[in-house]
Write a structure and sequence with these properties.
The chain is α/β, with parallel strands linked by helices. Among the domains are: 297 residues, Rossmann fold (3-Layer(aba) Sandwich), CATH 3.40.50; 60 residues. Helix content is 53%, strand content 10%. The chain is built from 18 helices and 13 strands. The strands form four sheets. It has a seven-stranded parallel β-sheet, sandwiched between helices. Strands 6-13 form a two-stranded parallel ribbon. Strand 1, helix 2 and strand 2 form a beta-alpha-beta unit. Helix 2 crosses helix 11, helix 10 packs across helix 14 and helix 13 runs antiparallel to helix 14. The radius of gyration is 28 Å and the shape is globular.
């Protein structure tokens, strides 16, 4: 018999998940199927993409390594996934009348993970997906006859204009409904012009629209059983489903790959600040438990959960870099272009100079060599991508926040020992050096698609790059020493010239006195 109250809660229930093909959405689907096998159906809101219809996209999703364990042990549970064609940017979520009726009659738990997570997306697109899409989903939820829980995935940084962020919904920076009205008639160019004035102290359209979406939830929810989970910087898996699993270059992963390949050499970052990374399996477990708690415990208002690491298991950017560099050197990536050695620069101007010298100059030189050799030049394009990735994270590597997480801690204390083990979202056992080792290895395996069998040759190549790196450092020291000596000779010649001039003046002084 099951000893998990959380797992039992999901028995015979139908679930709706938006954003199931995203990083967090995939992990949520896998975890629900693996740990709550009594689920009846999981509906996945999907939109056709390129030449793939929703069935092809579901097949692509299930072909991920993420589902290897389920395919091998419980392949029948994968049949519980049912794709629903839709699009959160369309009226009524783009769902057919028949599908809408099915969802309204059967769904009892909703996880809303769909959003644009790109920091530099235009404001109009971010509003359509993150704000208007949320409003449309809530409209559908009001029609669900069996609904017992709605869990919205926000971000801990939606209130990043504050130094301390509590587990409450703060007043919005502007009335979101007024902006929503502008979406239909204002052109993109005008929206882009207004964006800097609208977002104010927030660093990007993502955090801005996520704050607006929370306010829309408060206004639209009514009596809906609703909760908000706010993860911080979501990173690779810690323990499940695969240690180190990650499937994209967003956030810190792009920096790890860039540094591991030897292309990212400098980053504008204050190393003494707390790096609030959170392994993806932590917020996923919290989401599942939050839905259970929302449904089984009466509440008078929307509960907010800050899913962060800085309060429980803080780690600083300098430590992340130290652990990461050691891991990248032990688990070398293939075809590194230089020895991995990422340095943090606190001053913006100095970092800009370092980027020009260490990123752009080598990229242009290597592309020139590639053209001369008849090969395709790619390094400048890679430097551009690294520059954009670093710019997106710069605000978060140069600022620090204090996030309260009392609601998370209190929720954890209500769980049985078995549920705490199955749906762990406590960080007390997290060992950052080991985690960064897994993260770097996962970036090699799952993002770069480099098999473990390539490690010996990759390490051999890295060893050669180390000797080249050391030779380059010696050469630089010799060049600097030579320049100093040249400057010294110049200074000496100048002194001799001045001395001769003084002697001449002294020689002519008696003559001048006689005049």
């Amino acid at each position: 018999m099951s000893t998990s109250a959380v797992s039992d809660f999901y028995n015979e229930r139908c679930i709706l998940i938006t954003g199931a093909t995203g990083f967090m959405g995939k992990v949520l689907v896998e975890k629900l199927l693996r740990s709550c096998p009594g689920i009846a159906t999981i509906y996945l809101l999907m939109r056709p993409k390129a030449k793939n219809d929703i069935k092809a996209r579901l097949e692509e999703l299930l072909n991920s390594k993420l589902f290897d364990h389920l395919r091998g042990t419980s392949p029948e549970v994968l049949k519980k996934l049912t794709p629903i064609q839709g699009d959160i940017t369309l009226p009524g979520l783009g769902i057919s009348a028949a599908d809408a009726a099915t969802l309204a009659a059967s769904v009892s738990v909703v996880f809303h993970a769909a959003a644009t997570v790109k920091f530099d997306d235009p404001l109009k697109l971010s509003l359509q997906m993150n704000v208007l899409g949320t409003k449309r989903l809530i409209e559908l939820c009001h029609k669900m006859e069996k609904l017992v829980a709605v869990v919205h995935i926000s971000t801990a940084y939606c209130n990043c204009d504050r130094g301390e962020v509590k587990e409450i919904v703060y007043p919005p920076p502007i009335d979101p409904y007024k902006l929503i009205q502008l979406v239909d008639w204002m052109d993109d160019e005008t929206f882009n012009y207004l964006t800097p004035r609208l977002i104010g102290l927030r660093p990007n359209t993502y955090t801005y629209t996520k704050a607006l979406a929370e306010h829309v939830l408060v206004q639209e929810a009514g009596s809906l059983p609703l909760a908000i989970v706010r993860p911080s910087i979501v990173a690779a898996a810690w323990r499940e489903p695969l240690p180190g699993w990650v499937d994209n270059l967003n956030g810190p992963t792009g920096l790890i790959v860039g540094a591991g390949k030897g292309m990212l050499r400098t980053l504008h970052c204050r190393g003494e600040l707390v790096a609030d990374l959170i392994p993806v399996d932590i917020p996923i477990n919290l989401l599942i438990v939050t839905a259970y708690h929302t449904a089984t415990q009466s509440q008078n208002n929307i509960k907010v959960y800050n899913c962060v690491s800085g309060m429980e298991r803080p780690v600083r950017w300098d430590e992340i870099n130290q652990h990461g560099m050691l891991a990248l050197r032990r688990n070398a990536m293939n075809d590194v272009v230089w020895y991995p050695n990422l340095q943090f620069t606190q001053h913006k101007t100095l970092n800009t100079i370092a980027v020009l010298l260490q990123h752009w100059l080598p990229a242009y030189l290597m592309d020139v060599v590639a053209r001369l050799a008849g090969k395709r030049p790619i390094m400048v394009r890679i430097a551009q991508k690294l520059d954009r990735a670093a710019a997106c994270l710069e605000y978060f590597t140069t600022h620090e926040w204090r996030f309260s997480n009392d609601n998370v801690q209190n929720l954890w204390s209500t769980l049985s020992e078995n549920d705490q083990k199955t749906f762990n979202f406590a960080l007390s056992a997290l060992h950052w050096p080991t985690y960064m080792e897994q993260y770097c290895l996962g970036s090699k395996l799952y993002v770069m698609k480099e098999e473990l069998s390539t490690l010996p040759s990759a390490r051999k190549h890295l060893s050669k790059m180390w000797w080249i790196h050391q030779a380059w450092r010696v050469l630089v020291v010799l060049l600097v020493w030579r320049l100093i000596m040249l400057r010294s000779d110049t200074a000496r010649n100048a002194w001799y010239s001045l001395f001769r001039l003084l002697v001449r003046l002294l020689t002519y002084l008696p003559f001048l006195n006689r005049i």
